[in-house]
Each structure stands twice: as C-alpha cells, then as structure tokens.
Amino acid sequence: MSSKWDYLKKKVPANQVSITPGVSEMIEKAEEEGIKTAWHRYLEQQPQCSFGLLGICCRNCNMGPCRIDPFGYGPQRGVCGATADTIVARNIVRMIAAGAAAHSDHARDVLKVFKLTAEGRIKTYKITDPDKLVWLATVLGIEVGDRRIEDIAVDVANILEKEFGKQDDEPLSLVKALVPKKRLKVWMKAGIAPRNIDREICECMHRTHMGVDADPVSLLLHGARTSLADGWSGSMMATLLSDILFGTPKPVKSVMNLGVLREDMVNIIVHGHNPILSMKIVETAMRDDIQEYARKYGAKGVNVAGMCCTGNEVLMRLGVPIAGNMLMQELAIITGAVEAIIADYQCVMPAIVDVAGCYHTKIITTEPKMHIPGAVHVEFEPEHADEIAEKIVKIAIENFPNRSRERVRIPKHKVEVVAGFSVEAIVEALGGTLDPLVDALRNGTIKGIVGIVGCVNPKVKHNYSHVVLAKKLIENDILVVGTGCWSIAAGIHGLLSPSAAEIAGPGLRKICEALKIPPCLHMGSCVDCSRILIALKALAEALGVDIADLPAAGSAPEWMSEKAVSIGTYFVASGLLVHLGTVPPVMGSRKVTKLLTEDIEDVVGGRFYVEPDPEKAADTIIEVIREKRRRLGWPV
Ligand code: SF4
Ligand code: MSK
Question: Atom 7 in ligand 1: which residue has the minimum CA distance?
C-alpha cells in the first residue's frame, strides 16, 4: 500500500523541488524518516484559498470575514460596502506595515545597544568603526570637531531615537540627510515623504481599520510613504549602526551550502536577522577555552554556521560559513549533525521545533519578542551578552554526546564565495572613488545595475529564478548586487566567486577581472537593501540625475515575506522598476494591479512588474535598462 509520503513524493519529486545540491538528498532523508518539511506542508495546503491568493478577503472587523466574488456573480462588496479595490489595497498596505515594522523594530533593538554603549552603560559592545560614526554624525548635522567619539555617538543616538517618535510633519532626519534632492522633491510633491517610522506604520493600521480609508490611491500612497520610512530610515539605521558597532563589511572569503556542517564538530547554527547576539556567539565559539570544552565532550571543536540573514551578518564581518537560505533551515536539522539552532527573529519557521524533536537538536530562542512553543528560551540582555552567549554555546556543546551518529548524513557540496561588498568596499575596490563605475556605465562597458533581493518560496523551484535571472543579467553586462536569501542562492551556485566573471558579458568580465571581484556582489542581509539605496544615491548624485533616470532595476524573484513587500515598494517609490517573480495577492483588483504596475510610474518613476519566468523577466529588465540608457543619450 502506498504511504502518504509516496503520494507526496509523486506529486513533487524531490529532485524537482530545488536546483541546489543537497536539497533533494535531505528531502529524501526527511521522507525516509517520516519528517515533513515546508515543501510537504505546502503540498498539504493545496489548493490554497483563491480569495487569499487574489487578496479579496477581508477580516478587518467582526461583521466579516467578507469576500468578493472575482467572477462577478456573487457579492461585490463586503458587509460595510468595501469593494475589491479597497480590500486588496488595504491588505497590501497591511503587508507593507508589517514588513516595515519588522525591519524598523530590528533597527530599534540595534539603536538601544548602540546608545547604551555610547553612554558607557554597557561594556559588552564597542564602537568598531568610528569613521563611519563621524560620517553619519556629519550628514546628520552634528558638530564633530575634536569631541569624544562616545559623545558624538550619544548625539547620533538621540537624533535617531526621534525617527521613531517625533510629532512634526518634517521628513525623517535620515531622509533629509541621505535622499538626493531631486528624489525628495518627487516625494514632497506626491505627499509621501516619510515623517516618523512608527507613525507611518501606525497610520497604515488606522487607515485600514474598518470605515477609514476606502480609496486605493490614497491607501497605496500611504503604503509607499511607510515603505520609504523603512528603506531610508528604519533599515538604513539597522545597517549603519550595525556597521558602527561591528565594522563595515569588507570582502571576505568563506563557503556556503549544507556541506559547511562538520561531522566531527559541534555544529551551531545562528539564524534570524539581528547580529547583536550572533556576533557574540561566534566570538565565544572561537575562544580557545570553548574549543577545549567541546573536546571534553568528544568533538574536535565548535563549528558555527549561518542561516538566512543573521548568517549574512556574521559572514560579512567574520567570514562565518553559511549553511543555507530560508527554506534550508529544516534541512540543516535533518542532516542529524546540528547541536543547536540559535534564533533571534524573522524567517524562523516554528516547524523547526518539530523537526528538531526528531533529532537531538536544540532550538534556542533568544529575543523577548520571539518565543516558539517547545524551544529552549534563553533571553538576550545586552548588558550580559557575553555570559548569555557562553551559556548558549555550552548548551550546544553539552548536547553533542546526544547526537545519533548513524543518522548523520551531511551533503558534501559547498562552494567558496567572496562576500561583504558594502558600498565602502565597492568604492575601495574601484580605487577609492565611484568614477570608474560611473565611466563604465556611461560608456556602456557595464550596461546597468540590478539589485536582486528577497526570499525563497516553496511555490517555485528553490533558487532557480535567483540563479537564472542573475546569470542572464551578468551575461548581458549588467552588474548584479544583492542581499538576503538571493545572495546565499548566488553563492551556492558559484556566482559570488571572481571566477564567475567567465560567464559575464565582455565589458563586465573585463572590469571584474581587473578588480578581481565577482560579477554578483553580496551586499548583506535583507535589512541591508539600504546599502543598495546608498549606492543608487551615490551614482545619481555623481551623474547629476534622479535615481529614476539610472539604468538600474530591482528584482525579488522568489519573495515570500512581508519585509520583501516593503523593500519592493521602497525601491519602486525610489524610482526603480521592481520585478516580482511570485505573484503578489493583488490580482483580485484590476485597479490596484494597474496602479502598482502602471500608474504609479507617473508619480514616483518606478513600478512593479510581475513575471514568474526568470528568462522573460531578464529580457524585460534588459529592455528597461536599454530604454533608460537611450534617454540618457548613452550607447545601448
Ligand atoms: Fe467585511 Fe468591511 Fe468588516 Fe472587512 S471591514 S470584514 S469588508 S465588513
Ligand atoms: S531571510 S526576509 S527569507 S531574504 Fe532575510 Fe531570506 Fe526573505 Fe527572510
């Protein structure tokens, strides 16, 4: 008799789920051992609710839930009278609010540690990049002179705290300090210059409450304003302060894929997004006494690997290997070789506790705002960061003897990468100025720049679109920069290696070979999409044009998270075409779909473009870049 697992395997054979070596092997192991992964649960969810897919269900009040008949035979209005246009717009605005909240609350946590450090109230952290602090203070209008670095830092913290709480209608301080004048003018005219991070998010919830804003245009404009508060202030702050505390990333060599796990060592995975604790975990694990402690428990030492964006944070600054991107978190446990996953927040699937329950793996949550039933919770307190990190690392080490050796199977595949291209690192690679890049763009040696970002999603073949799109763009002399789970996909598939220049077009290849850099540049975690904004700002200012005029675009080929909705929206509102490879839940309203994919371009210069096929998407992006070059009078 065929089992449920056979049925699931027939529907989606493991070798068709992902292009990444080791993934199908681990899915097969999961099935042999009767364990479900996200791919299995995705199948169990089929068919997914079509009202949800179209965005036309509303449960914003208890007269509902209401749903609109997309075929026009059934109800066309909710109980309150809300139309499909209103409901779809409200739903997408709530997604933006949640995404902006996640990024910006992450920033708030980093800011808190930064301020405590600056005030000397905690000794566990220090200011590692004073030059970046002085730069930030200067752009914020703070007097620097020969003042103590700590005093400057306190002033910076005080200004940044106001980003969350000021009550006037002036644009945010980071927006005024960093956004090019031409771009800010566009937002002022459209009434979408962001004023206060928390206020914009709060206003999203107010406007989408029953009986408030019913106009899809004003709803979406406020969504754009909220996303800009995220990109140019919330996410920007998280990036800038993490750089000041832990160092601005420089190119660093490392390795990626499940093969970074070690059979003979204690394997600890740091997972989530915030580097505050994970940096301490890595530092602690590297200590001689801790390595010795692991040997007492029968291991050769401690091996820390990253997952998702916390992985990107510790990769960029400490060269820590990465075991995988978001959909690979369960697979890492299924290797049977992971003693502990230490998770802060975001993109941590609650299912990892169930999967871990089938092995000896401990899931350790650390943030007051993220608990998972069944996980061990060791709460992070910045003032005791070192002790907490040591306690957690020791829990993992002491778990090593519980590993069941006969169930360990680690895929062998791993790939060398060069990561950590902050804007400063790119400028340094170019010889200290952006001029060579500006010249290459102008003369057509490089045709354009595309930021590929975002997640992975079991709705589409894992990592396929990320890799196909990036390859086609670099083949056409387009420099690819990116963050988040894309950067891990790119790394595993060899695109973050300088040798990948071999498959680039002749112009891009020449530049990459001269500078010894990959044609796809790893710029960090998803919060670090702010680095891409800074790169765009610098290019626009160097050329004397608006960001919308640049031969540049964005893409989130396999996105899934609400943060990605906010990121996509702030790139559109900053003037770019943004490609989405998985379909957003807006198709239930022609009006909203048209507003986002066409009409918004007249207001902000950017628009969304939805195309699941990465080859076709690449063709469109290339054509858009050509058109921008034509308008600039540059060779196509
Ligand atoms: Fe229904 Fe309107 Fe309430 Fe939404 S807000 S659940 S459409 S009555
Ligand atoms: S981890 S938000 S799945 S990029 Fe930043 Fe990956 Fe997307 Fe999470």
Answer: 78
